[in-house]
Amino acid sequence: MADEELDTTAPPWLHLVAAFLAMGPPDSLISLARDCGGGSITDSVQSFIWEHCIRKAEGKCHAPYVKNLLKKLIVEIESIGGEVLDELYEQYAHYMTSLKENDTTKGNAKSLKWVSYLFPDGCHEATVCPKSRKLVIPLQCSLNMLEGDTGCSLWPSSLFLSEFILSCPEMFSSKSCFEVGSGVGLVGICLAHVKASKASFPPSLSLSPPKLSVLVILTDGDLSSLANLKQNLELNHLSTKSAFSERTIEDPHLVQCMHLPWESAVESELQDIMPDIVLGADVIYNPLCLPHLIRVLCLLLNREKTYLHEQNGGCQGPQLHGEVHGGDDKQLNGCEGKARLSTTPNPTYSPHVSKGVPVAYIASVIRNIETFGYFLNLAEQANLKVTDITENFKRFDLLPYMQSYHRSDVRLVSISYTVL
């Protein structure tokens, strides 16, 4: 098949390029390459990989990743008696002589990934969908996901939440949004794309002039993660500010970044923000952090907090009790003696924010059912209603090329404050 006959803007060729730019697992790319060749990696598929993936991305993609991909690609082709393209052999030989074995994970190594959201046919008229039906977001991510650099890694729940935002832009457009544990910033960048915003601040801030355009507020408790987050925002041409006084009036690309360790958060930092929507991805994982997370959510979602502050001389947050034990059960059922996760059967679920009541959307992979049960207990004590809404929204499959991303592992819950 001649190169000019290939439609690189359509699957499976489009999926192969997108997976390569996102640094997908080599085995996934080999699977996609087989799809392109009708079951095997043909000469035309090899030429495509060389021309449209490796050569075009030379100097941009992480070299050790490309080396590992080439190694597996060569083994795959040779295992069925095929001939490997000379250019692929030569590039692999170049990496063999120029790269050391420990270059892949040396120090706090980071690499640029491009996450491509591929919109399906029929949505090209939507304001959120580019004319090309492809939205590409560059992100600098850590290569040491499990070595203490988790805040700079790309996690499934972030991908899930980003698809949710891009599939339901009307829920976030013209709403003030606040993210806890922003990590690499993918969720915030998607919020910027759908034009999340807050038109003005409460009078208590005494700003002059009073009306500013605030796109979204992103937070993280780790300073190194926050620095990486700011770099990613700049990569995506978004203005980053770290203080209210620095904000630019009517800046359509303004994102506020805030250092927010949950355990030391105080009401004075959060009481004037009053977001319409709070978001979080994979923040329910460490039992020791959950009481602090619940307290932060209360401060953000409770519109009565200012009154309580005045009456009680300060809001100390809810008094939370409970204990958590180990466990590996990944099922949602079986939380005997714990608060239950409610569900809403209405497939046209109406967000609380439409009624002027703030709401949080938290996406999580439930790795430990007892930890999640502990979170539900703490939420109940704090008068927070947690509802599983995973099945209540029709989400586009915007990442069809990510074979290692399993949407079914992620649950989406809404959280709102219950006024007694």
UniProtKB/TrEMBL annotation:
Pfam family of the protein (one): Methyltransf_16
InterPro entries, alphabetized: Methyltransf_16, SAM-dependent_MTases_sf
Secretion signal, residue range per the UniProt entry: none
Top-level taxon: Eukaryota
SUPFAM superfamilies per the UniProt record, alphabetical: S-adenosyl-L-methionine-dependent methyltransferases
Protein name (Swiss-Prot/TrEMBL): FAM86 N-terminal domain-containing protein
Source organism: Escallonia herrerae
